[in-house]
Design brief:
Helix content is 19%, strand content 42%. Strands 1, 2, 3, 4, 5, 6 and 7 form a seven-stranded mixed β-sheet that branches. The model has no long low-confidence stretch (mean pLDDT 95). The chain has helices at 45-57, 112-117, 126-135; strands at residues 6-15, 18-26, 29-33, 36-38, 59-73, 81-94, 104-110. The protein has three helices and seven strands. The protein has one domain: Alpha-Beta Complex (Nucleoside Triphosphate Pyrophosphohydrolase). The radius of gyration is 15 Å and the shape is globular. The protein has 151 residues and is α+β, with helices and mostly antiparallel strands.
Length: 151
């Protein structure tokens, strides 16, 4: 049987030196995460990240670059590994009053110092790693991605 990782997308959005994160309830704990989620059948990675950011934060997101691709085995479920595509972009419009995905407590903008202070509450080490990679200048053109869904 062929092994397949779970494909996920994650967003980095920055405004006035703050990064958009979500506070979410996971297994009874309130943790911070990037707006992120699973790629759904039939959608492109770009469609997935726009949808996930909207569903989790009520912000429209326009990706402008790929920060990195990350392979991450779930330490709590050894049979699950995530293949994460992390995008950088801008939030363009907030839909105030929109209900957020189940489990999302709120969207919040945090500084890098606040993220460091809250490092124990990050859902995974990928959250600060992706932000660090962005701050270190990792930026790859979206033209790297090719989708052949209508073939």
């Amino acid at each position: 049987m062929q092994w397949k990782p779970n494909t996920t997308v994650a967003a980095i959005a920055e405004h006035d030196g703050r990064f958009l994160l979500v506070e979410e309830s996971i297994n009874g704990n309130i943790v911070f995460n990037q707006p992120a989620g699973h790629l759904e059948q039939g959608e492109t990675l770009i469609e997935a990240i726009k949808r996930e950011v909207m569903e989790e934060t009520a912000w429209e997101f326009e990706p402008s670059s790929l920060v990195g691709v990350y392979l991450y085995p779930n330490p709590h479920q050894p049979d699950i590994t995530y293949l994460r595509f992390c995008f950088y972009g801008k939030c363009t419009n907030e839909h105030k009053g929109q209900a957020l995905d189940e489990g999302i407590v709120r969207a919040v903008w945090l500084t890098p110092a606040e993220i460091e202070t809250e490092h124990q509450r990050m859902r995974s080490p990928l959250v600060p790693r992706c932000i660090k990679d962005h701050l270190d200048g990792n930026s790859y053109p979206l033209e790297l991605l090719h989708h052949y869904l209508d073939q």
